[in-house]
Write the structure tokens for this entry.
Amino acid sequence: MISRLLVANRGEIARRVFRTCRERGITTVAVYSDADARALHTTEADIAVRLPGVTAADTYLRADLIIEAALAAGADAVHPGYGFLSENAAFAQAVIDAGLTWVGPSPDAIDAMGSKIASKKLMAAASVPVLPELDPATVTEADLPVLIKASAGGGGRGMRVVRTLAELPDQVEAARAEAAAAFGDPTVFCEPYLATGRHIEVQVMADTHGTIWALGERECSIQRRHQKVVEEAPSPMVDPAMRERLHTAATAAAAAIAYRGAGTVEFLAADDGSFHFLEMNTRLQVEHPVTELVTGLDLVALQLDIAEGAALPTTPPPVHGHAIEVRLYAEDPAHTWRPQTGPLHTFTLPTTTSEFGAAVPGQGAVVVRLDSGFASGDVVTPYYDPMLAKVIVWGPTRGQAARALAAALVQARIHGLVTNRDLLVNVLRHPAFLAGRINTAFFEQHGLDMLARPLADEDAQGLSAIAAALAASAAERAGATVVTGLPSGWRNVASAPQTRVYQAASGRIDVGYRRTRDGFLIEGEPELVAGEVTATRVELGRGNVRHAFTVAAYPDLVCVDSVLGPVSLRPVERFPEAEVQVASGSLLAPLPGAVIRVAVAEGQQVTAGQPLLWLEAMKMQHEITAPTDGTVTHLPVAVGHQVEVGAVLAVVTPPEAQP
């Protein structure tokens, strides 16, 4: 029996495993990097062991340090979570060799599926349909387009779509570099690229007594950069006949490698119902909550049972209702999915009914589940994946689940960072999504610019800015130490209005207002009436329609929440200090990261769009390109340099500006 378990991971998945352990009376052990010293998973564990350093390579990817931590903490078992070392056969074997219980499949099974190249051959031998594997060196024009994939990993790392032979060599090199950084293995291969396929996967659970469950299917077709964003169970495209074929293929895949524990067999499906094997993830998936909510199972509890030698019942429970999960990322979809870092001032989801699956769906009652690794006041660093949380909703029908999930996201208070929240709501409300017409090209087909647009339109942003200005006025009056009986900005005679200026997504917003005996007069808004005005709540009405705005002010940021949509405002100083000037043509770091490759030198001629260098942050590579034709006149960075947001990476001077 497991009595003390170490989770070799961080964030929400560590917290998820801890939740089940607490219910079972199992002592929990966390490992943490220096960047995670006050992270939720660190502070919630019964015992926490420091891994000196901040990068994944120095901490969570160090198998030796994690095993040392388990032994030092007196753990008798290790759960790998997902990512990092979760699919590393050598790590699994080292855990076993250390006399610890490994909560996962055998090292041989992990090894069999660890190489996508080898696993596809194995699956073909087991009569599981597969796509042909292509050697990058032998790809021809007839093979295009192709998808470059890392043999040793997933999550979109090391993946590139190639449409011309001319770009193939550079893309292969970039994919190899990213694969080596993420998985320690630069091996890549190519396969035919199906631009509009559907990503369908089957959750399997297998014990050591020969029983293999296929727990329905999940659809994960809506993706960005080959990483899943929206997942659901069951799939809207799968009928009973296709489901039976998927289950047969998935159980054959698990049986072929004598699998045990939780795993996922992933397929790429076409509209005609045909499908091909992509890979098998030999671990718990990020999207496992949707399966838990439609089956009522605790998959982590089953993992622990199987690790202790228990047998599964002969048949799994049936699927009921529908569950949809979205991944809430600290990133800006409208600007090339740029990851965001910094303080998360406020993060609340008021409609939450369950955390980490503690509640089982009732008959007809919608369940809103939150699996999060962050809370209000935490800081998002550049060292790890930018996922803040997973929000999952179960409903009796798919339509009810989608509506409830969109509403939960709208009501969430997320202050401090740009996130993909608005994008997720727009997807969940999109007619094509609601009709089940989804595929891996959803963003391209329906326009990322439209899907990423703010929930608050220009008028809503203007009203939010007015609410922010009035709330700021109330806050100043509440903090006044003299003539406290007079309202802020009071004048005995008419005078110029008070003004506040904000920068919003729609641009600059100037707010002018006067305080009179009858209330506030808003410049340019003669019909707008202000009701209650406090430092945190403002009511604004036009005619008989009134809206309430909740206002939260932070240093250099004001966040306004209302039914019209969330709005983030940057106050513009009335008397700004002189700003530091940068040279024309300067390329500034869009996020903190490490320079991992430089492709040019000072004095070199470049063309617009030409890659100059690459930054690595949050496990992804970010290409920095020339903004115009010209000469690289300044290159202050080199490989290995760590840069902060706004740092000058290079200066490209166009011909007309050169002396």
About this structure: The first strand starts at residue 4 and ends at 7. The chain has a mean pLDDT of 92.
